[in-house]
Protein: AAA+ ATPase domain-containing protein
Organism: Deinandra increscens subsp. villosa
Amino acid sequence: MNEEQESRGISTVDSMVNLTIKISNSKHNNKHEKQTFNNSPTLISPSSSAFYSALQSPYISPRATGDDSNPPSTTTSPYSDDIPSTSYTPSSEKYDFSDATKLTVPRISFSFPVPRISLTKGSFSPASSAKLRSCDVYIGFHGQNPNLTRFSKWVKSELELQGIACFVADRSRYADSQSHEIADRVICSVTFGVVVVTKYSLLNYLTSEEIRFFGKKKNLIPVFFETSLNEVTDFLDQTSDGKDCKEAVEWLMKSHESKLEANDGNWRCCVVKVAGILRGKLGRKSVVEKEIENLDQIPFFKNRYFIGREKEIAEIEAIFFGSGDLQENESTVESLANEDGEVLMEGNLLKRCKHKKAKSSVLCINGGPGMGKTEVALEFAHRYSQRYKMVIWVGGEGQYLRQNLLNSSLNLGIDVSADGEKERGRIRSFDEQETEAFKRIKHELFRDMPYLLIIDNLETEKEWWEGKDLHDLIPRNTGSTHVIITTRLPKVMSFETMQLQPLPLSDALMLTTGRRKKRYPDQEVDILKKFDEKLGRSSFGLWVVGSLLCELTILPSVLFQAINQIIVGETASQFDEPFWGNNHFLLKVLIFCISLLNGTKNHLALRMLLSGGWFAPSPISSNLLAAAASHMSPPTNRFKKWAKTTNLTLFCCSGFIDNQSWKTEQDSALVLVKLGLARRSNIQPGCCIMFHPITQVFAKTKGGLLAAKATIQSTRKIGNPILNSDHLWASVFLVFGFKSSPPEVQLKALQMVQYIKKTALPLAVTAFATFSRCNSALELLRICTNALEEVEKSFASQIEDWPHHDALCWKKKKSKVKERMDEYVWQDVTLLKATLLETRAKLLLRGGYFDYGEEVCRTCISIRTVMLGHNHSQTLAAQETLSKLVRLRCKI
């Protein structure tokens, strides 16, 4: 793996050292000013080396730290050690002092092409000055709004992704002259200046100075954040009549041809537009502009019938983005804020409403099954997607969480493939390679580029495969990324939790009637209230009832009578699941849906439903569901008892039967969506649906092993194994089990050979090579080898039984013995076993397990020598692998 692949998304990070700048809140500012250069901790402490290192990088972004009575000996970063960050701006969340609008250090406007203040002798070398001059863009902003800082960092990260060197700073936070000297050099040397303007920015002298300086150089690109040019102009007309402000406004008007305004609904578009403008002005036409449409990996469309939850959505927004605005009037500040946040001024008082800071970057939405946790996360993702670079949706089910996180690398453009034979001069172990794969994803996700990561339906705090802590996957410091976790767990680690309560009655009634424009009489509304009570206020149950009312076009009282008369009886025990517990009425609703499909002769949709329970909890294409359904017999007889208790004649005239042609696979899949049992997904081309977890558990229980076998046989129809890897793993769990789980389905010898050859072996190779799932891939190959050895033993036992057959019975049983023991099947089993052994040897070679790999490879050679001969190409290939193993083992 070359260095470019290793450092993707975090370019030049290793060469960057953040600059720590000493800020003093001492009342004796004049005294401090005189001692800036002689006694600055940056110059006299051991950490001064960090300062010089910072000057050598064109990506530096000086940051400020709080006051400390003792000079720091080392630079510290609020980012965790395991998440290297790109160059970095002062974090507004760390400061409670006000934004000074006039510094105690005498300021001179940018009238000269050289820095205004010369540093101590030796502070700058020609090489470091050249590095500073190599910056392409300066990004200036001013304000305490965390979202402003977040947006400015996002612009910087996006530009750096395009290969544009940036320097971002809020210069009002700098207290010593050396920090301003660095910023001055960059401002004087950059090609373009981007100034992020808020309503109150021009009250700050430094921001006004930047606008005027870049305007005179005709390289100003203003970006209005949560405001507009007219609003800024009107505000300044009322609060300021200074010459500098008026001149700055004039330059904003002259430079506003691009009309870059970042509002709530277009942050992402604005950032992409800024990057496109600068890329064009700088002549970076070779960099391909990325598509901004459909970047989000939200698996579902926006729900047009989303009801209520406005309080919860607002709370999530407040947790992630804070609330409030920063208000300033015309006045200048000559000292920093005191501990209580009041701004000390010589003449007037700077009125300010402190911005309420974001509480957390990780939020768990907790609630019972079917309560609507996923719906809340989905609604938030659609509403606020423009505030993020990308929305990444990950299924949190235990067996699939690891693979789903690795799948996100495809969307992020990260290479997490396994190493070649050597990496950094040595062969790395499998654990190191797997750790590195997750580290690359974490490096991209948890930095200054804002992402929204949604982990839906998290089942356990511990990772299922290796039992790792969730903090190994989600660091404590997530950078600019926000994480939403939906779960039934009462508490997840130390993350902040939002307990989701049932919908209020008014919203619950709207949920059942929202798809119908017609209003029900009062007595029918009372029946709807009964539904809410009987269903335990389950949002999922109410949604299914609402779907039935809409599709069947019947009164709630008729539907309630039909569902209520269903007798669960003896089958109740087998449906004892945490999804419904003692809520048998929800179970009756699902039974009614199945009986309805069976009664309307839509057997394809019914078989799709039953087989879908055994697939992975992710979107499934209609073609794949139809392939599984084709291996199932019509399940009519199994529903006779329920059909008797459900008078479906009441619904024959409803139009549900007549209006459904059900001629195609897609039509049958969409019937399940119309009934509320599944929702349509947009994650893959074509028609894909995803079953609700409650529906999937119910279908798995009712479909039985017949549906499970059909699911396994349908995996051969999977077109893209990478996009459908979770469904392939689901079939592996059914055939082999894993860890302590027993296998669910027993395959015949020929079926086992075909399954391993067509499904399991390619899945193991893909998991290893594409996603660095080294240990999982080797474990799968080992289990496959053991399964083939069991088949071999069964063949051997059949051969041993042959002499005991009576001669008179030989002719009668000859055909049966031929079916049980096929010479060609035996040969296929043996050669496939050799292929598995060779594959394991090659993978063990890449992890440095030479002894074990040599042992496995010798077994493979022995088998092929007997079956194929010494000079066969496959035997020679295995011998070549063996020689490589021996050679590397001897070197080590």
In short: DSSP finds 32 helices and 15 strands in the chain.
